[in-house]
Amino acid sequence: MSTQTLDKPAATATEDFLPLLGTDHVEFYVGNAKQSAYYYQSAWGYELVAYAGPETGVRDRASYVLQQGKIRIVLTTAMQPDHEIAAHQVQHGDGVKVLALWVDDATKSFEETTKRGAKVVMNPVKISDEFGEVVISAIQTYGETIHKFVERKNYKGAFLPGYQAWKSSVPVKSVGLKHVDHCVGNVELGQMNEWVKFYEDVMGFKLLLTFDDKDISTEYSALMSKVVSNGNGYVKFPINEPAEGRRKSQIEEYIDFYHGSGVQHMAIATDDIIATVAELRSRGVEFLKVPDAYYDEVWDRVGVIKEDRDKIKHLNILVDRDDEGYLLQLFSKPIQDRPTFFFEIIQRAGAKSFGKGNFKALFESIEREQELRGNL
Ligand code: FE2
Question: What three-state secondary structure class fits 120?
Fold first, then answer.
């Protein structure tokens, strides 16, 4: 077995030069934020909590802030064609622009990372309204994706200054999504190690796991992956790159359609994956399908779990076990027409890993979809 655990997250973050409190929000640039917001509300159970746009005095864009549990998603669209948001959307399709990190000190976060080589996107700025003040700064990561540092300890408003509290006009029922578990980046061939080094050197992350093409290959295609984590383990970023195979790697398909490196998927944690997935399926969310044969061998591999095996099979949920426990997971189909971004739903019962035992079945399932799209 070539997977190795290289380093556990430190128990304390006392020497961490970039202490992170978690994921603050994830912002997507999309073609039609109003309709996307409807999808996130009605299908995924996110509540609309804030808005910025022409009605609030913002002329060049519209942004919808959606929340469920601790997850905050922002959907932003441009109002005019000659806007960088419009250009981003033309190039990449709907996709993640900002992985925002919640910090206590956005100025120090900016200084510590830029002095170690991070490319500046936005110098620290203090913005305020009647609810208090925030400090925001930003640095570049892979592709056109950026990390914002958000310091909000002196702020009590709905989201950020410039946004107004807003209410859903569609009935919203939570599906039990709790928090962001990890966010995965796909990078171009040969760039994985560079970005791992960026997270290590510039952001003080540690390499947690390595998967090579022997772990992650099927008859047709392969990929390599390394997982980096911040000091307290709250923020985990797996980074994938394509590997040589007989056919086109799923990572290459992503890169071809996203036109560069970008965020491949976001894993969202739930405490009850059976209820969450049953509800999402009933609302029309589509998931990857593994063959029934997967369940002929999975129970031998993972042993006893608390959940009902028949329900797990019926909902086509995947199961894996590591030294510390087990996990249940499932992957949506891409949520836009381009075969790019998708969501993972994950429930951890002790396991801190990423479902390595499911890679083969999962990637074969992705390849069946790739073939249907004519991209294998
Ligand atoms: Fe994942």
Answer: strand
Residue at a domain's end among 141, 165, 189: 165
User: Is 205 found in the same domain as 92?
Assistant: no
The total number of structural domains that make up the chain: 2
Residues 52, 140, single domain; the answer is yes
**Distance in angstroms (rounded) separating the CA atoms of residues 201 and 207:** 11
Question: Please, which residues have CB within 8 angstroms of residue 269's CB and are 6 or more apart in sequence?
Answer: 177, 178, 179, 180, 181, 346, 347, 348
Rounded to 5 degrees, φ, ψ at 372 are -60, -30
> What integer best gives the mean pLDDT of the chain?
93
CA of 342 to the centre of ligand 1 (A): 10
Residue 278 contacts by C-beta under 8 Å, 6 or more apart in sequence? 315
Q: In terms of residue numbers, what domain contains 244?
A: 177-373
Centroid of ligand 1 to alpha carbon of 184 (angstroms)? 7
Which of 165, 195, 230 delimits the end of a domain? 165
Instruction: Say if residue 4's pLDDT is above 60.
Output: no
- CA 54 / ligand 1 centre spacing (Å): 36
By three-state DSSP, how is residue 59 classified?
Answer: coil
Ligand 1 centroid – CA 234 distance (Å): 15
Most confident of 33-42, 296-305, 366-375: 33-42
User: pLDDT tens for residues 262-304?
Assistant: 999 999 999 999 999 999 999 999 999 988 889 988 999 999 9
* Predicted pLDDT of residue 213: 76
Q: What CATH number does the domain containing 213 carry?
A: 3.10.180.10
